[in-house]
Amino acid sequence: MAPFASSLVTFLLAAPLLASAVPHDIIPKDIILPENVVVRNPYGATALPRDATHLALDEQAREIVAFRRDELLGRFPVASGISSSRRDAATGSCSDMSSDDVQKLPGWNTLKSTAENNWGKGSYNVVTNDKDYPDSPAQICVSTDIVNIVPDGNPSASSSCNTQSSASDGQQVGTNGTIALTHQEGTESTTTSTVTKETSISTGVSVSAEVGFPDIADVTTAFTFTGTFTNSLSTATSSTNDQTSTATVTQSNSAGKMCHLEFTTQTCTITGTGKIRMLGTGWVWFEYNDQTQGHYKWALSIDSTLTNQDDRSTFIEFKSTTGTTSTSNYQGVCQ
């Protein structure tokens, strides 16, 4: 990657020909503007451009200087100039990354070499979530992609299920005619997931992820559920999915008889595995002991520098056991 430019050339000779509003942050502070030029911030008072690739801290002015590659985007107050919302739209629940955490990302060497190629190999500290500018966080977040459970082997109703006949409680019939027998029909499932491999980033943190279970013929249709996972080896969580609905069987009856429902109950156990992608996002600061390119502190966008998701990803792996109970083939019987 080519080094970022450290300065911006401003052509003030053209100022009289420009419209009367010129972004003040692309003009050096020591320049006196013509009277017909109005100074303004092109991005608003409190918004950091989402396409910013790197930042510098102007400690004297207490401003963040934002760049896109070699283009100066603007200056923003440290206290309120940076949006704290996640930069990556494809992320779910998040937790903060420490400076040690960010150095465990697969693409850390790319972040390091990018910083050193642009700002030098002098002595510096790697810093994340600095209390002096808390609105430029570094976080590890769950990808919003659905986590698909992959069943072990080739599960089927014959290999993974037991089927038996069942009956409901009886109801006394008072008069001749018909009786409506209501029941819950469909499939209810419980999935227990146990972490088999934790990520070394944000160990012990609990996160939520959308999990998908596949369609298995004669066992269950596909469904999704929100699961909570703790990034710690051998921790287990359970989630329930209810695909049942109320149905009614209308049965002819005679006075004095007892009526009930007879139906089929199928119970199945399916084991499988899954992987939760955790994405690094936000900013990592390189705080130099000596001034470089006009500043002591520079930050790189993790998202913009590591454009391949795999370079900023780590995974929580788990095994799952899904138990399903399905009821069907309801028939009314009066005796």
TrEMBL record:
Which parts of the sequence are annotated with region: Disordered? 154-174
Q: Does the keyword Signal apply?
A: yes
| Biased composition annotated in UniProt, kind: Low complexity | 156-168
The region annotated as signal peptide is: 1-21
Q: Does the keyword Signal apply?
A: yes
Q: Which UniProt keywords apply?
A: Signal
Task: Tell me the protein's name.
Answer: Uncharacterized protein
Q: Which organism is it from?
A: Mycena pura
